Amino acid sequence: xxxxxxxxxxxxxxFLPGPMMSVMMADQGAEVIKIEPANGxxxxxxxxxxxxxxxxxxxxxxxxxRGKKSVVLDLKSEEGKARxxxxxxxxxxxxxxxxxxxxxxxxFDYDRVKAIKPDIIYCSxxxxxxDGALAHHPAHDMAVQALAGFxxxxxxxxxxxxxxxxxxADLASxxxxxxxxxxxxxxxxxxxxxxxxxxxxxxxxxxxxxxTAGSAIAGGESPxxxxxxxxxxxxxxxxxxxxxxxxxxxxxxxxxFATNLLTALDQLDLLPLAEAPAGEQRELIAFxxxxxxxxTRAQWVEWFADKDVAFSPVLNFREAFxxxxxxxxxxxxxxxxxxxxxxxxxxxxxxxxxxxxxxKKGEHGA
Length: 366
Hints:
The structure is a single chain. This protein folds into 2 domains: 212 residues, Crotonobetainyl-coa:carnitine coa-transferase, domain 1 (Rossmann fold, 3-Layer(aba) Sandwich), CATH 3.40.50; 73 residues, formyl-coa transferase, domain 3, CATH 3.30.1540. The two termini are 26 Å apart. The strands form 4 sheets. Strands 5-2-1-6-7-8 form a 6-stranded parallel β-sheet, sandwiched between helices. The model has no long low-confidence stretch (mean pLDDT 96). α1 packs across α7. The chain is built from 15 helices and 13 strands. By secondary structure, it is an alpha/beta fold. A hairpin with a 2-residue loop joins β3 and β4.
């Protein structure tokens, strides 16, 4: 049982945004019916692989599709269309992630699905939304980040943008879609009416720049990373190389942290530089750069252990997953039958969680 027990979701989405949204619902007890084509969700074929429930699966696919039911349907055939109609009649939520127009051509756009189930909550997830000049423009995550301005500030000291480490547009749309669907479910309890949700990756990501793109939002020039407090212009929100070629991060600009660190380094005279505007702290950044280069990362971790400073070593994923914090919080869970899952971030006090099985393609019908 879970908070969403009794909610039935029909999910036609693939890859990342939609499956991320629906796995969060499945983790809380919703019945998620994953509709797959004959060749399955492409994420099934994405390496690396591990053994889940006694069968080899993509780690990506397993972590985003556990606990769902897999039904294979050919939605271009009359038989497949009829079977989907049957499933929709008892559904609460319908999710799709195709380009605008595809569902209409298949005969399952919102109007058609609403005719089958009048109180359905229908969620379309796309790159740029269902209307507008970019509606039909093909794009995955990085292209959306590029057009939204985010990639420009995902840059190094020389100003060259680099490939981002997180698929922020995909993830923002998954979280936004989940929030919208849950709002619509709550609203339906009062009104008895369903809803149509046009969730765009672009629209979902854009609000995430409110704290960094203020000048552009206000109608002025675009911010430049090296003069921004959260993008590289502040000494205490910065990455530094260590003696062994690894890295550490200072992640808190509050003056109390600067005071604590500079006092410990016997350089409190540099405190005024930490109070200077972002972009005017180059002298302090240079000092800290030279300082961090004098010890290895491990030595700095030990040195900072008793200091009240927002400091962290920069870990790779292997090191991060081996950190005691992961085990203490139960954030990496081995399923019965094998295979690791990242635990859901949404967990409720007093309720146990364990990963439900990863569905085999077509395991629950065709």
